[in-house]
Amino acid sequence: MQKILFMIGMMNVGGVEKSLLSLISTIPREKYEVTILLLEKRGELLKEIPHWVKVKEANWFEEIRPIILQSPYKTISNYFYNKQIFEIPRFALIQKISNKTNNRYFYYQSILRNVPELPESYDIAIAYQGPHDIIDFYIANKVTAKVKTSWVHFDVSKFKVNIKFYSKIYQKFDKIFVVSDEAHKKILQLIPNLEGKTEVFYNIFSKKTVNYLSKKSNCFDDDYKGLRIVTVGRLSKEKGLDIAINLLCRLRTDGYEVKWYCVGEGNHRAELERIINKKNMQNNFILLGSKINPYPYIRESDIYVQTSRHEGYCLTLAEAKCLNKPIVTTNFIGAYDQIVHGVNGYIECNEDDLYHRIKYLLDDPNKRLELIKNLSSKDLDTTDQVTKLFKLII
After folding, report:
1. For the whole prediction, is pTM greater than 0.85?
2. pLDDT digit string (tens) for 257-292?
3. Using CA atoms, how far apart are residues 243 and 224, in angstroms rounded to an integer?
4. H or E stretch covering 375
């Protein structure tokens, strides 16, 4: 039996985590022994991991986590307070070298120098949440595997990626999977020497499965008669939910009877609540929190809107397509892999364009029906993508 290791941060409700569960669901358990290594063993989706999958926690991460997240001055202060005086010159020197050379490789090499190697060996080890400095470094340097893969889920042109670090670290991987065609182009523009080592691997999803899950419960049990817009996504700046609040405010001001529901949780909640309160949208823009199964909310919506500032692929957009929802989305790179403008949805470039497009769909139920019909005619299924993974370990 061949052994597969996936490494990820934690199992919160998010696109990367859900895509991992979908991928694992396509792996034959009688042929492969699957292990998930988590930096932190927590998150709502932990209980969704199949019972036959081994789950491990990187116990060493708790010690180095503060060093990575806090300022260098705080780290030095902590060393002094804890009487680890001998650590200060080494840390200060490696920090200076890292900044001077603009290369984080030596920084992580120093921070993780005492982290033990994983004792087990694997046929393939996958840094699944890429680009992620700690996870990529650990798989590259602390894991024994016949094949090593990093999985790029984000638009690297929109993230602060240390090019020298990844140019070096990716040399230690056999394959770099990227979740969309456009994201693939972006990473090759950033690191041209990856040409020949990268391959597009679309997120795994099945229209049949999404539809089945969407009917497991009803979500809107009120007597609201207006139209419902739904967005699914983490409450973070890059998801652009502040834009969504502005759009709803304009729609309500123009007399549209519409409510907007957001399924998701995140560290931007307090700021979003402040904006909602400021615009008196408490009863109309509703933060539903995290839901393990968001599909009933999408199914019962009239329009699905994605306001993300950037995405790599955007799994929730694919899920809305599976549920045949009229879609309006911003023009992040992954949108172009999924939406044909005017055929199965609309891609818009700014807030004004989003506003006018949503208004257009609210005003024209026949256009919404046309989009639904076009989406209904397509059988969306990417489960065959998993063969790309199996080919690496034959």
Report:
1. yes
2. 999 999 999 999 999 999 999 999 999 999 999 999
3. 24
4. helix 365-376
